[in-house]
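Submission sheet (multi-component)
Chains listed below:
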Amino acid sequence: MGIVALALIAAAPMRASATDPENRLEAAADITPRTLALGALGGGRREAADHRGRVVLVHFFATWCEPCRPELASLDRLNREMGPRGVEILAVSVAEPEMRLRRFFAEQPVSFAILLDQDRAASRAWAIEALPSTVVLDRWGVPRLAVRGDLDWQRAEVRAALDDLLDETEPRRTGGDRP
Amino acid sequence: MTKDIHHSHPLHRRHLLALGGGAAAALLARPAFAQPAPALFAPKPGAWRTYEVVTRVELPAGDAQAWVPVPSVNEAGWFRSSDSTFSVQGGEAKLVADPVYGARAVHARWASGAEKPVLEVTSRVQARDRAADLGKPEGGSPLGEADRKLYLSATDLIPTGGIVKTTSDRIVAGKASDLDKARAIYDWVVENSFRNAATRGCGIGDIAAMLTSGNLGGKCADLNALFVGLARAAGIPARDVYGLRVAPSQFGYKSLGAGSEVVTKAQHCRAEAWLDGHGWVAVDPADVRKVVLEEPPGKLAIDDPKVAAARTALFGSWEGNWLAYNFAHDVALPGAAGPKVEFLMYPQAEIKGARLDCLDPDGFKYTIRAREVSV
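Outcome: structure written.
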């Protein structure tokens, strides 16, 4: 399946959701592999490259961003259900103090890593124009899908797109490392 | 240590955005500028009022630093930053200033063994209503080249190119003078943005993200930054003025004043645009949207008389029940382990190198009290 075919542009059925039903997971405009190495909430350092072989969602958010908050719950459910099958979520907090994040996630815990982009260097390098935004990397670290705005990660076509990436056995674009 | 200091910021909203200012304006009622709105809200320069503001920071442990903004604005017509004093328990403190904007703060440090670190800063300011007669240029000095450059420049969250420029170009198309352009931008922000009660603090002011997402909801740091960015993109010097509401509105607007002496969460930023012949002109579209949302009974129509009066007044004037801290963006706190702050309006602190949440004064913890005093 080509990358264009992966673009999910068909209208999704309307349903009750806290997320914006108009937002779509689409083919990534820029498929240049990018690095991501940031300190993590609670200590340690995480790199996207450490997760080669898995489909990685690099999710940029802020707790002050209203649509970001329900999407974190949606991502948490995705992680619990697809994490064991090879999906990794790296949630990048953009320019927020660590203490605020500790308090927020103490009240709304999530099962994935929170990375700290305190000076916006990572969000700039990834050309993030609005929060929330998510870039999906294939198993070779190549950006393949992206969504600007919040998304219901339980939608069938979203899950199907992630399944397609998990099923790939060879890189579809040059520039990535083999898992 | 105590030290005296002396010295001399629906119709579907995406649809509205796509329509642009002119078309969107036509869809909504607007105040008739040719027929003055009722004088429900009409600040005029009058007597100076003196306020004393006390900011108290209490930290749970040592190995800590705190930065408390000190009023740093002196504008002959409407605001005087007078003396400030500060005291610190168990540590040391000094006055520091941002090298770009001159925004001052008291910076305190406590060693690892310090118990119950406390910093208290007391500031006195004088303020009065301001109003520009926009129908009659008053002359005056031109804006200096350094200030013109500074207040036309992009900041980290206020770019002046890209979608900000294209949006600005669309809004000011057909407008010849800076006054007409600035008013068009003001009207566009009033008509296309909205106050979002769920926004934490005063918002963050990421205007490119707002325009890109089409979500023009927020609070003063978002909505007035939007005005500033769009004005700068149109070639009009503009600046945020970060401050604090310190007294009730004398016009009876509950939404536009402090409700009590405790003003810990009463931060409010305004904006100014430089118009040749008039100087810096007061602009506050965010407060128009605050009146719409919050003025009793709440959720007022854009053509409600209270809204219309505020909208007419808040392009050119504002009330002197508010303290101005500074005009600063992207402030590097001296000695801080954490990143620059987008603006310096809240007390800031770090413990063991970790930045505290300035929007959580109860957990921080800090309190701010303000009272009007006789001279």
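Remark: The radius of gyration of chain B is 20 Å.
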